[in-house]
C-alpha cells in the first residue's frame, strides 16, 4: 500500500475525509487569499489568519490546456499518454476565486456559472512510488 | 522639457540564426543613430532590456566603450515601454539632452515556461500545469466573450487582419496572409484560441534615439514628440496572469490606469488618435485592449471589427505592422517595435502599410506579466 502525500504542505487539509483548501484571511481589511500568505495582498497587513475555504462554488471562467506543457509541469504523463485538461477559476462564496484544474476537459462539459465542488485525488507518483495528491474541481 | 524621438532603427523580427540577440540590438541601434545623424559617442545615456539574450548594457561592447551610463531595464513584456519611459524621464528632468533606448531578444521555440519561484508562488503551481500565460489569456477572453456576447469569428478576424498587415511589412516575421477558415479551424491551443490566434516567442531588435524637443530639428526634419508616457502595475481586484487566486470583486486592470494617465499628460483623448498599436499576445487581447485603452465601450468591438474600422484603411487602424501575431514577441523589443511603427506612420513613411490621410497622433500599449502596462501618446 503506497502512501498518499499532498503536492504541497498547507495547500489543503490532509489527510482528511472531507478535504478543504486552506486560505488566509486579513484581520485588518477582511480580504481572503489562496494559498495561505503571511501578509494581505490587498492592504499589506501582516495580521492574517488561516481558514478553510468553502468546498463548493461557481465556475467563473475556464479553458482547456490542449498540449503538454514544458517543465515545470511534472506529471506521470508522456507526450503519448497526455490528455488535455480543464483549468478554471471557481468563485468560492464569501472568500475568493481560486484557480484550479477541472475534472471536466471538453468545452461541452463546461459552462460559466455552473456549480463545482472540490476533489482531492492522485496527481502523479513520486520516485519512491508514493501517490502525490492534488486538488481539482468537478461539476456537481 | 518636452521629449522627441529623432532616430529609429529595427532589426527584422523572426528567426535570425546568424546573429545573436545582442547583435540584433546593435544592428537596430546603429540604424537609429544613422537615422538621427549622430554617432554612438554623442549618446549621453542608454536604457535597454532583454529577457533572454543577455544584458542589454553589453551593447557597449558592440557599439564602443565610451563610458556612458547604460541601465538595464527588465519588466516582462512591458520592458520596452519601461525603457522608453526611463529615457523620457531622464531627458524631461533636464539631466540629459540625448540618449539611446534599446530592446532586443532571442527566445527558444515554444511557449514560455515561467518559474513560479521568481514570482513567489509555490512549485505546485507550475507542476500541476497552471502556470501558463496561454491559459490566462484564454480564460480572460472566455469570460469576456460570455459577458459581452463576442463570437469566435471575431477572434479569427483579428488574426486574419494581423497576417494581412504583416504581409505588407518587410520587417515582419509572418509575411503570408492566412485564410479566416484556416485560422478558425487550426489546432486548438487553449479554448477558444487556436494556434494562429497566439503570437510566438521570437527574435528582433529596436533602437530609438531620444532628445530634448527644442533640439530635435538639429537631428531630424521629422521628429516625433512623446506627448504622454505612463506605466502602471495592477491594483487589488484586477484579473492578472499567474494568479492562483483572485478577488471576488473586479476592478480595472493596469492598462486602464496607464491609458488614462497617458491621455491626461498628452491633453488628448482616444477619439483624437489616428493610428494605434495594442498588445495582441493573442486575438482576444487586442479585442479587450480596444476597450481597456478607451477606444470603444466594452461589447462594441465585434461591430467595429466587422465594419473594417480596425484595418489599415479604417477609422481606428490597429496594429498596422501586424502586431505581435505577425511579428512574434521578443520580450525586450516588442514595446519599442510598436513605437518604431508609430513613428514610421506619423512620418508617413510606412510604405505598403501606411495609414492614409497623413496621421498626426499615434498610440502604443504593452501589457505583460504579472500585470503591468505601459502606454505612449506620440505626435508628429
Automatic annotation (TrEMBL), chain A:
Q: Which domain of life is it from?
A: Bacteria
- List the Pfam families: OB_ChsH2_C, zf-ChsH2
Key words, A-Z? DNA-binding
Per the record's keyword annotation, is Cell cycle included, yes or no?
no
One Gene Ontology term of the molecular function aspect: DNA binding
ChsH2 C-terminal OB-fold domain residues are 51-120
InterPro entries (UniProt xref):
ChsH2_C (IPR002878), ChsH2_Znr (IPR022002), NA-bd_OB-fold (IPR012340), Thioester_dehydratase-like (IPR052513)
Q: Which residues form the ChsH2 rubredoxin-like zinc ribbon domain?
A: 19-48
State the name under which the record lists this protein: DNA-binding protein
Recorded source organism is Oceanicoccus sagamiensis
UniProtKB/TrEMBL annotation, chain B:
Q: Which controlled-vocabulary keywords does the entry list?
A: Transferase
Signal peptide start and end residues: none
Any Pfam family matching the protein: Thiolase_C_1
Q: Which ranges carry the Thiolase N-terminal domain?
A: 25-172
- The answer to whether the entry has keyword Transferase is yes
* Gene3D superfamilies on file: 3.40.47.10
Query: Which InterPro entries does the UniProt record give?
Result: Thiolase, Thiolase-like, Thiolase_C_2, Thiolase_N
Q: Fetch the CDD domains from UniProt.
A: SCP-x_thiolase (cd00829)
**Entry keyword annotation includes Transferase:** yes
PANTHER family, alphabetically?
ACETYL-COA C-ACETYLTRANSFERASE (PTHR42870), NON-SPECIFIC LIPID-TRANSFER PROTEIN-LIKE 2 (PTHR42870:SF1)
Descriptive protein name:
Acetyl-CoA acetyltransferase
